[in-house]
Design goal:
single chain; Purple Acid Phosphatase, chain A, domain 2; 6-stranded mixed β-sheet; 12 helices; 17 strands; elongated
Length: about 400
């Protein structure tokens, strides 16, 4: 049987205040096309469908339409809540989506109550068991008394032990004549961050080792870390990564969905299918003149611009007028450090306030005569200089 593994859509995500819903429609559209072209038996979405626990109506409309479109390809659609999603809302709408053969799981549940989703693959008739483990918050995994009394190391061990217990309980429903898959939203020790994850819910007590997953699983479909990666383990433990870069920290990631082929008697074979929709995120360095000269090359990208010249009034506007996709414009930190190194501290005792302010600006890479003039005017107003 064949299925797609995807995760971390983060629908509704904005970037520096810029709405990206059109991009997200295009990205999800490519996922739907892959599902249709590959005639997959199932689509597994391993959490963080939304970027917020209170998504906008437009974001919810996109996700619902996407789930229905994936269902219309003939695939069994199974999605779980991630740490960005509202687990209670997922469970509230679960029965409604069940009516159209889409499985939405918000919170951890026993196997017999929907913790394991079983179905027959339409292409081969093979039995498939998918154990689902939505994001498990530490406050639900560890008793209140332990939260108060335990050390951080003990809390980490307790979270690990609790997740292992849940995994073992769900995996007990695996059968030897089926393709057995586990889908979870969590951090596995040794995984590399993609750049846009919520750190507080990814490190410290929020992790488990890859060995926590059963060796007899044909595939472990993970969400939470935004970089496509496979971790060493007895079973294939795979993060599909986010299908588009959610922040500049992810600009170098390769966006894919994973096509997985497996049978009850053969190991999983994984093929990465590219996702090319969405605007590219890029970080550029140079003077204003150098950056603006690349306007044609950079016109379709969202940009983080590090300017390598002294700050001055109107600098940002010069960049954004030529490059509307420049969402962040700042002085290059390396340039600022180099500038400060060229202006060591001097003896201040015999220097006027204007001279001291000029030294301060020079040390920070600020070169603007208008700023100096405004300082002089303010100084005169405060000290009364020049009054009759």
């Amino acid at each position: 049987m064949r299925f797609l593994h995807t995760a971390d859509w983060h629908i509704g995500k904005t970037l520096k205040g810029r709405d990206r819903l059109d991009e997200q429609y295009a990205v999800v559209g490519q996922i739907i096309e892959h599902a249709r072209a590959q005639q997959v038996d199932a689509v597994l979405i391993a959490g963080d469908l939304y970027d917020s626990a209170a998504p906008t109506a437009k974001a919810q409309q996109l996700v619902v339409r996407a789930l229905l479109a994936l269902r219309d390809t003939g695939a069994k659609v199974i999605a779980i809540a991630g740490n960005h999603d509202n687990a209670a809302t997922f469970d509230a709408y679960g029965p409604l989506l069940d009516a159209v053969d889409i499985t939405l799981v918000g919170r951890v549940r026993p196997a017999e109550e929907g913790g394991v989703v079983s179905f027959d693959a339409r292409s081969t008739g093979e039995r498939v068991n998918v154990a689902v483990l939505p994001f498990l918050s530490q406050r639900y995994a560890v008793k209140a008394a332990q939260l108060v009394a335990s050390t951080p190391a003990e809390l980490s061990r307790d979270y690990d032990a609790m997740v292992r217990e849940v995994i073992d309980a769900l995996a007990a429903s695996f059968t030897p004549d089926a393709v057995n898959v586990m889908m979870a939203h969590l951090t596995v020790v040794g995984g590399s961050f993609g750049g846009g994850e919520r750190q507080a819910q990814s490190i410290f007590e929020y992790h488990v080792p890859a060995a926590a997953f059963p060796a007899d699983a044909h595939y472990v479909a993970l969400g939470h870390l935004h970089r496509r990666q496979t971790l060493p383990a007895p079973a294939p433990v795979v993060y599909s990564g986010s299908p588009f870069a959610v922040d500049f920290g992810e600009q170098d990631n390769t966006s894919v969905v994973c096509l997985v082929e497996a049978s009850p008697t053969t190991p999983a074979r994984i093929t990465d299918l590219p996702i090319t929709a969405g605007r590219r995120l890029r970080t550029v360095h140079g003077t204003v003149e150098q950056v603006v000269a690349r306007a044609d090359e950079l016109a379709d990208d969202y940009l983080r611009v590090y300017v390598q010249e002294p700050a001055r009034a109107g600098l940002r506007e010069e960049v954004t007028d030529a490059l509307p996709g420049a969402l962040e414009v700042r002085i290059d930190p390396e340039f600022a450090v180099a500038t400060a190194d060229r202006h060591p501290a001097t003896d201040r005792r015999d220097r006027s306030p204007a001279e001291l302010f000029a030294d301060f600006c020079a040390a920070r890479g600020v070169a603007d005569e208008r700023v100096q003039a405004l300082f002089g005017q303010l100084h005169d107003e405060i000290t009364g200089a020049g009054r009759e």
